[in-house]
Amino acid sequence: MEALAAVGPTRAKACHGESRPDRTGCLVSLLGQESSNRIRIHAEAQFFLKQADRIVPRPKDRGFSLALGDLRRRCGHNWPHDAAVQGRPRGVDKIMESRWDALFPGQGAQFVGMGKWLYEGWSVCRECFAEADDALDYRLSSLIFDGPADRLEATEWQQPAILTVSVASWRAVKHERPDFRPLAGLGLSLGEYSAYVASGALQFADAVRLTRVRGQAMQQAVPPGLGGMMAIVGLGREEVEALCQQAGGPGAVEPANYNAPGQIVASGLRTGLDRLAPLVQAAGGKAVQLAVSAPFHCSLLAPASHRLSEALAAIRLDAGAFPVIANVDAEPCSQPEDIIPRLIAQVSHPVHFEQGIRAALAAGGEGFIEFAPGHGLAGLVKKVDRRVPVMSVENPAGLAKALELLVGAKL
Question: What is the set of active-site residues?
């Protein structure tokens, strides 16, 4: 299970009535002046296949402050209105681009009705859901909003559904703060695709189709019932790796997700997992079988890597506006020749999420904006470093607080 854990710019008027620059990114759209800001990404890339096996406080803008107060009231908050000063704060671009990282969820974050508040609140989000429907020639939006749950849980639909909601929440934030550019992006498995869409490296429609292919390939790589995954809690990395070797080694059972300290997921044949469970318990850990349909992120999924490589060869990528930290080796990637082989390797190699979080913090990140759906990744980040702030854009209140955070207000 990948997620094991628990809008075009508008102008605000200043005191004297002059127009702000477009990059002010006020919340005027929430007051009825909304304009579309569809993300257009075009790219040209060559295909490479290689295997990866390692892995200050400042003045506030008056227009923003006034509009934020309206959003707070809409969300049912009675927070005190922030003091505001007229004029564009100096140094805002540096703050927008240098402090926060963008975080995107993977499989397991889905639920029927996710993202409906985005659809109802922003035209750019409605466009996002419509684009996904068109890309698949299927009413994915109806499945997302109305279910049924068992179909939404099927990995071939779950993957593009989660990606669509993640990108919709990204577009809502960019609609309100068009000058926001994260220091880096990071996703949990599937979430890496959402991060590349946000960076501009991957077209949204291509990503929707690609994640469906990915889901189909991952499901079909191993016959149903033969493989599975197991969460291991309370043991260290080296202990888990040694126990996996003892239980059968590559193919039989392997580490698949290094999610956080003391929280690792193993993947492989059910026979290997059955041998692993008592070994984990004897070592003082806890083993929990996960309700998944396939043994993700292990060598058994090599056939899925080949199918994904063919699908990636048929689309174009561009250089990203910001780097995305890859799951397979925690390296920042923004060029197609770096992105493609890592996406291919990711399917059948472990996800180094903890290492990715540490890499983002080491690069200067001070906190994370977790995009919808859900807030499960915040818990993993807190296990890595409880001091790191994480703001989850999972509902209107979360969005309001994230926007406040992005202009330097206290959480």
Answer: 189, 297
